[in-house]
Specification:
The protein has about 850 residues and is an alpha+beta fold. The chain folds into 4 domains: about 1-30 and about 40-110 and about 120-210, no CATH class; about 220-420 and about 485-525, no CATH class; about 535-715, no CATH class; about 780-840, no CATH class. About 35% of the residues lie in helices and about 25% in strands. Strands 10, 11, 12, 13 and 14 form a 5-stranded antiparallel sheet that branches. InterPro entries: GSAP_C_dom, GSAP_fam. It comes from Callithrix jacchus.
Length: about 850
Amino acid sequence: MALRLVADFELGKDVLPWLRAERSASEARGVGSGGADVVENDYESLRVLNIERNGNIIYTYKDDKGNVVFGLYDCQTRQNELLYAFEKDLEVFSCSVNSERTLLAASLIQSTKEGKRNELQPGSKCLTLLVEIHPVNNVKVLKAVDSYIWVQFLYPHVESHPLPENHLLLLISEEKYIEKFRVRVTQEDGNRVVIKNSGHLQRDRIAENFVWAQWDMSEQRLYYIDLKKSKSILKCIQDVFLNELLILYVLRLVNFGCDYQDQEKLSKHLSLCVFTNHAGSLCVCYSPKCAAWEQITYSVFYIHKGYSKTFTTSLKNVGSHMTKGITFLNLDYYVGVYLPGHFFHLLNVQHPDLICHNLFLTGNNEMIDMLPHSPLQSLSGSLVLDYCSGKLYRAMLSQSSLLQLLQKTRLDCEKMATLHCALSCGHGAQLLEGQIIQWISENVSACHSFDLIQEFIIASSYWSVYSETSNVDKLLPHSSVLTWNTEIPGITLVTEDTALPLMKVHSFKGYWETLNSNLENVKYAKPHFHYNNSVVRREWHNLISEEKTGKRRSTAYVRNILDNAIKVISNLEARNLEPRLTPLLQEEDSHQRLLMGLMVSELRDHFLRHLQGVEKKKIEQMVLDYISKLLDLICHILEASWRKHNLHSWVFHFNSRGSAAEFAVFHIMTRILEATNSLFLPLPPGFHTLHTILGVHCLPLHNLLHCIDSGVLLLTETAVTRLMKDLDNTEKNEKLKFSIIVRLPPLIGQKICRLWDHPMSSNIISRNHVMQLLQNYKKRPRNSMIDKSSFSVEFLPLNYFIEILTDIESTNQALYPFEQHDNVDAKFVEEAALKHTTMLLGL
């Protein structure tokens, strides 16, 4: 299953054996019954009541006399502790213990039938008690009402004193009010802790007339919905110690079969959850408890993004007995929507814009059959409680299952969503990337709606630096896909813009600072801040054009760019200590180094503009890590194909034809080139050389030249130099060499021609020399008499032309005596011309 549930706690394994051991010990001591007395038939009375902020689990059970017993399981020591026992037959509704385990609050329902397990029924007498349990002492009645009361101690984030004098207790009533009690304690007779002035506890009413409430035990936040003037207002209080109101957000609860003013229907027929994560997301998920199950509708308010999405899906094979509703699960960067036996929907909360980044699995998919079919409750910190079995799970995305799904699924939308789900997991990233790369190298053409290599490179590079600092997700692209117009089978979607929340915060810190940054981004930054290489593309083309014309701007500027590239290469090599299989990163490749260096400069400036308060040194390292990751992924993709086709001992040479294995590697290199070209991403130095050599190996001449002319193959000086040296001068090779030389840039072409000892290259060299001499030539009066003795052949047009060239060379030598000259002169031109003429005449 894409979702993996790891059991952190189980009543049957972590509590029941201890209870049996305690009972056996009591019987051995001759004690008739006690708090630990439990028999096999009483196991069904054992259930979880609460999970506190520190992870400790409070549970209850009834002994053989019907007494209510409270126990605590310490998640750190893995030990159980008996807290308190009521010697009355009561039903427990709620319970909480303070962090020092000196006070216990419990809400109990008086039994309505003797001798039977009592059901919670409206109208039962509810007692809310506060008990001193260190040691067991006084019992204080807080409430005695005919409605259910939920109790919860607050756990301070910073414990400044081993025994805080003040303890805050929340009471949430079914009668639509929330109260806060301030409980003062003191120590007497050594370690005995008692309530100070228990007859007059300070009490404050926090809210009235609410219709729904949720407690976030990990972050100590209270969410509730207040209905005022036909508006459903979501409110949140975090710092309950100061009564700080943090969020006011208007929810539009419509089309769910209940009127705004009908509070009873709203509270009973609405399944609603609020989820947050450390990246500053705030999601409100809700769904009605439908009378008919043929169609399910649920909505998610992405408050941190400023819009909501409503999803509708039809159910198949729905039985009349079906009563289970939707379960919402908090999975950090995702929200899971689960209907047992029917569907599982993973919603991306960091990047919810495109539906293709959400994974929707139906009952036809074997993956969802592995989830429990009992109702689940999502808690803070990706915890999930199964009340029926008494198991507490830690929910996480299963990388192995996601990888299997990626390999099996046929839909592009599912491939896209699964790829992003897997990469977001974080743990074991290197191993996972290796498995994904292996699959990509074998299925490079598996997707038709998007470029698989491109998407993997962008997404994986994004997640590699995502955790470095906040706001990175706003500055770097997480996907290569900007729009998605294809429907997802089995589900329909409606998106609506929503108003941003009103925040009243004493000081923005931690989560609230990140959330506020997200809201500011939505409010003011309509143009995307995501980095792109448009500026780099323009500047790179300018530099290449200057290089071709021989006009290069200041050497300091270019040197700084190339120094950036050196840092990237060094950072890349430091990440991979093992020798690479492919002959990459072994040559200069100035063009790719310029592109690398320009991207470093531009991305660094982009980060400096938008990452306020982050050290420049850290930004510099983030930039190097991000670009190094891009290049490293390209190297790994190529190495996976290299390894698959067993090209370990392959070396640069041209004296043999390409094999099927070499053609396969050439194909994937071409796909890598396509993926990087549209985004203008750099390639590892040596990539184009290797690509060209494989192209010469594998392609017929006309296909090879077409690839060169269309830009698929880029001729590097290293590749062409090796071609000139390795290939002999057969007619076929001469044709290839000449076709290559005429396609080279002039500066590189002149260098290469000097390596080829052939009349054709001499002709090209001569032409370039003559063109260079005559481009600034001005005709001057000359002696009409030509000294024929200085020429090897009596051919007046040639003799006259050579005399002009000789005169220009002499003048240039006099004007620029210190300028270096190559071995090409008028004599060389004369010999080349004669050889060429001889060849043309067939002499």
